[in-house]
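Figure S4 source data
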Amino acid sequence: MSQARAVDAVVLDIEGTTSATGFVVDVLYPYARARFGALIAERSGEPEVARALSAVRTELGEPDAGPARIEQALNAWLDQDRKLTPLKTLQGVLWAEGFARGELVSHFYADVVPALRRWHAAGTRLYVYSSGSVAAQRAWFGHSPEGDLRGLVSDWYDTQNAGPKQEAGSYRTIAADTGIVPDRLLFLSDRPGELDAARVAGWRAVGVRRPGEPYYEQGLRGHAEARTFEEIDVVGSGA
């Protein structure tokens, strides 16, 4: 059993940790891929979309890249599972609308929601830090099979407002923003590089190692690990 004592908050990765990577790859990625072209052609004047398209051109080093080139790049990055902010932003726009229309319902492993409710009820703050955009995170938690879970979460972090997930500086940014001492923050993720970065920043970290997930066979490089959230004993600092 992995135990974390005297923590004030739990920070959650989504893909591979709270939710199945397969759902994201098999359901959400194709949903976005089928709609990138229309989004670029019809909504490039919207501020959020325009900023993301500009960032795509910057990433490509092609300031004059047209709609077809941008769509090609987005699809290539999707195939490569690149965690690039403009890709995640545009995915988030499309996914949020899909969830709102009832075309999408998110996935959570069966052990996750009961644990989140238990920790929240005990006074432990919950945060989300995902490579997916904040808009996508809110949509994900707002349209779960168990209803709207957004009330459990105190705040949301992505690669835009916190930084890359495998850099310690991102975790320092989150700690400063929450006002919580680093060693009272517990990060849950399936990715060793993210756990390493959190630990360098002074956080506690537990790897969630679920059979069938991409990082299961690789192992967690010496980090404490749990197969389910039921194995993670979160005890508030006042306990």
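Figure S5 source data
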Amino acid sequence: MASPSAPAAQSDRAALLKAFDEACTGVRGLVESGVSSVPALFVHPDPYASAPLAPPGVSIPVVDLSLPAPAAAAAAAEAARSWGFFHLINHYQALGVPEDYPARALAAVRAFNELPAAERSAHYGRSMVGGVSYFSNVDLFRTSAASWRDTVQIAFGPQRADPARIPAVCREELLEWDAHATAVGRALLGLLSEGLGLGSTRLEEASCLEGRVMVCHYYPVCPEPERTMGIVPHTDPGGLTVLAQDCVGGLQVKQTDDDGASYWVDVKPVPGALVINVGDLLQAV
């Protein structure tokens, strides 16, 4: 029997994508339906085809906010320059962040994503109505393979989202986490600004803290994790990403050594630490 023509295959894929999106329940909805294999829409090629996994023991740097300011600034600048990623520790004491954050925010996001489908679907949509959206795969209709994740996205600046649009089950926790993450971001911009020799306020004055978006990814349990990805290789377009990991892990960073060889480095969760990613905007500074 002849294989379907390319236009027919594309038409079938478009129909499947449309049906998935119009179900308004995301990847979590597939899991709830009892799928035992990854649907073809979500199958990815081998993610390690272009670069292998790093040897054991290789990890991103650590920046300790309990160090004297000049030492912390030097460490942050070096980590940003050489890796673009680092673990941030002791921000609780230095910035007054409650020790139950970000865990409370992570638990609240999980609670929303595990609401009954009918309750979640009422929030589903690709437009940022009131500065808030809940959807699966921002590039769902453009990518060649969808990723195994659902997302809540909230704009916190320069125009702040309407708090009433944030799902009630996670509203209080996400509003509070924005305040804490903003404090972390402000402190880091000060350190990096000092590390660049610009003075402590230069990057913040350049409005690097004004535009803020909170992106809450949820990765449902997958029946065949080796056949798909939670998120594809990418860079973050902004200035800084303040990333709160849960205990599951899965984040990897691509690093190139002095000999020009590239490899993927596992960023294993560190209790009490945040992961900081220097985005494209600051990479260009």
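The radius of gyration is 20 Å. The first strand starts at residue 62 and ends at 64.
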